[in-house]
Amino acid sequence: MELRQLRYFVKVAEFGSMGRAAADLGVVTSALSQQISRLESELSTRLLTRTSSGVVPTDAGLAFLRQAHLALRHADGAARAAKASRLTGEVSVGLPATTASVLAVPFLRAMRDRYPDVRVHLVESLSGYLSAMLNARQLDLAMVFRTESARRWSTLPLIDERLFLIAPPDLPGLPPEGPVRLRDIARLPLLLPSASHGLRALVDAAYARLRMEPNLAAEIDGLDVLMDLVRDGFGATIQPGAATVRLRGEPLALRQITDRHLRRANLLASVSDDELSPAALAARVLLAQTAETLVRAGAWPGATLHKS
């Protein structure tokens, strides 16, 4: 039995006519009649008597009508209570620096609009640190790139990102404009995060497949400093498209890397569902929805939705 069927029955009893009730409800008469018939079949009793002038409730229909009115009042009251109450609480969310470049502002804006009474604690850090914070229960959820250190995490693959070479335009050995492969840039001085972080592990694994090693100029565990060094001509870096959002027209060379295995998966990870508060559960859903919206709108450079 569905609330819709109760509403249909009450409306038919009120108008005494299938046709007028259907017009008031905005449905076709045949669909309304079919729903009433299903309701009668489920109750195994006749609720309405058809007459030449319309329909009237049977004795069983009158008894059912009183209870249907009561059930609908309760349902409407529950809906009003749900709308009147607002979700409250706190949620701690971790975003890697590159992901935060494109996702942080839209997500916080969406949280403010949808759940204004939920306080968000946003942590921007490297993926490896965020994983450690999740394991220590210092975060409720985070976007990460690897799950090897997971302890009872709930994970959802969201986004696959292409990687780009970002370099000073006058860097010696820089390939000409257009897509490049890892082997084309192996001799460039590279600025990368340290080995414990997801992006570095991805780059190292891709070079290992080629039986090559990158020319590592420095390990920088901070996106702002790393990009300052790139601007200063210290070397080039390999970053996902999200990192280019903060370039804002700066005169840096950008080359998409086409190696098939060099794509970064963004995983939405959280502590186990039974440990998440209602506020954290709501934030997790909204974070995933915001990321999907950005990708579909073309606002996340080099990103595609994960096939799952």
Question: What this model shows, in words?
Answer:
With 308 residues, the protein is an alpha/beta fold. Helix content is 42%, strand content 22%. The protein contains 9 helices and 12 strands. The protein has helices at 3-15, 18-25, 29-43, 59-84, 97-114, 127-135, 198-209, 223-231, 278-296; strands spanning 48-51, 54-57, 89-95, 118-124, 141-144, 153-167, 190-192, 216-219, 236-240, 253-256, 263-271, 303-305. Strands 3, 4, 5, 6, 7, 8, 9, 10, 11 and 12 form a 10-stranded mixed beta sheet that branches. A two-stranded antiparallel ribbon has the order 1-2. It is elongated.
The largest sheet is:
10 strands, mixed
CA-atom Rg in angstroms: 29 Å
Helix content: 40-55%
Taking pLDDT < 50 over at least 5 consecutive residues as the criterion, the unreliable ranges are none
What key attributes describe this structure?
alpha/beta, 9 helices, elongated, single chain, 308 residues, two-stranded antiparallel ribbon, 12 strands
List the helices and strands and how they pair.
Elements (H helix, E strand, L loop, with lengths): L2 H13 L2 H8 L3 H15 L4 E4 L2 E4 L1 H26 L4 E7 L1 H18 L3 E7 L2 H9 L5 E4 L8 E15 L22 E3 L5 H12 L6 E4 L3 H9 L4 E5 L12 E4 L6 E9 L6 H19 L6 E3 L3
Parallel strand pairs: 3-4, 3-5, 7-8, 7-9
Antiparallel strand pairs: 1-2, 5-11, 6-9, 6-10, 6-11, 6-12
Helix pairs in contact: 1-2, 1-3, 1-4, 2-3, 5-9
